[in-house]
Amino acid sequence: MSMEGLSLRDHGAVCRPAQLAGLPGVDIAEVERVHDVFPLRISRHYLSLIEEPGDPIWLQAVPDIRELSDDGDTDPLDEESDSPVPYLTHRYPDRVLLRVSDRCAMHCRFCTRRWRIANPDPIPEQIIRDAIDYIRAHREVRDVIVSGGDPLMLTNDELEGILTALRAIPHVEIIRIGSRVPVTLPERVTPELCAMLRRFHPLYLNTHFNHPREVTPESTQACALLADAGIPLGNQSVLLKGVNDDPLVMRQLVQRLLAIRVRPYYLYQMDLVKGTAHFRTPVATGLDIIGALRGHTSGLAVPHYVIDAPGGGGKIALLPNAVVSADEDHLTLVNYQGDLRTYPCGG
Fold it and tell me: Are 25 and 122 in a shared domain?
């Protein structure tokens, strides 16, 4: 079932439940109940990718009544306890995360920060200044992740002002931007935006593709503009039940990403955020996916499978166990084909 004919895609983002009345399979009453708690927003580009109710695109975008039956945490990563000033998280020794926007092109139904987004008001300039002052005062900070919401929802001038202030700090060596805009609102990535961004190298951008159908001509063009501006691109996927919890789907995704110059970086285990339990998979599922990728596709295509520790503490990487046994002299290992190999332990 194609959604291409819906007039919705010609009228900007879908922000009100009544606008979904044209989608087959939508229970407007249920959507309204969820919208009152976790607001609806779907970009017209992303809406056009839905093929049928309940497909992997639908699941990420359309409110689900199950979001109201989960009593999880509203801040599962305990970012607030690591925020010395508002909108800045300092969890790791040499890097900080700076939130510069509370707006996104789409409200992903699995979002870790779903309790903080959807604020239509800009973040007050004084809050951003205070956060940058903190970075300036802490010489150990060499890496700043500019996040949100979505930083690319700012105007070019607004974003340029923030990047200029960060690049003027001598000890800030690296600036990274986290944005799902190349996936959800690819038309936002313009030559003008990229010409501005390239002035702030070394600058990296991590985006967020979860399913191979999100790799469209439009998102490919957005990534091409960024890559041609010399910006290394990475991808951070979230493991989602019914979306990408299948080794073949994930292999197709990571291979398509490399083909458009986006390197798979992280595969996140679903955070324990309230309203998202129906997306969670067993950890064994993620380990099986990584095991099915290793050896069966380029090492460049294999992301790090990580759990962002509940209650804070940072990311913990998980790997399939390749060590079958060990003694004083030898390791017994298993390769990607399931064959056993021995390796001497001596130096």
Answer: no
